């Protein structure tokens, strides 16, 4: 009986890029909206909580604390939205100019237009994220009459919210949850402590409010 001359060759075929099961998620594509959302929420939390803690260092009136917090919310959300709009619009102008140079002075193709950054979308996301973060300390302080308890509740609520936002950002970006959460929480504590301490110092040295 003749020996078999068949040769078995193992061939590794390339993955089909059109197969959803074979695609690898590019987490860098999330950078723009993730940065705006996480930073906006963190800014809202820390900025408004620090403002309220600063007022709470020299005033026991809950109305003053809420009023300052609300004013900070409106100002901060507006500032975030305008800043993000201007920044992304500048990026848009650069990318459009580059596309025109690459296309020999012609207009952008439809597919290229869809990939361009959206200034309005970025501005809206930043303002919304800031507002969501800022609401946390405002709600925490709104229903507490005792001054010292109110300050403690604000700190506790902001701590939990910062940890959650930090963890969510880490999960979406595939980074360490523990490190991200701890970094955000410690940073928030520092901001609130510095604002409270300096305001208390100024208030105790003759500045009447």
Global morphology: elongated
Number of helices, where a helix is a run of at least 4 consecutive DSSP H or I residues: 6
Report the strand count: 0
| Main sheet overview | none
Which H/E pattern describes the elements?
HHHHHH
Instruction: Note the beta-strand portion.
Output: under 5%
The class by helix and strand makeup works out as mainly alpha
Give the total of domains. Answer: 1
Report on the structure:
With 209 residues, this protein is mainly α. The N terminus is likely disordered. Helix content is 73%, strand content 0%. It has one domain.
Fold blueprint:
Blueprint: H1 31-58, H2 62-102, H3 110-115, H4 119-142, H5 147-173, H6 177-203
Helix pairs in contact: 1-2, 1-4, 1-5, 1-6, 2-4, 4-5, 5-6
What's the short version?
This protein is 73% helix and 0% strand. The protein has helices at residues 31-58, 62-102, 110-115, 119-142, 147-173, 177-203.
Keywords, please?
209 residues, mainly alpha, 6 helices, 0% strand
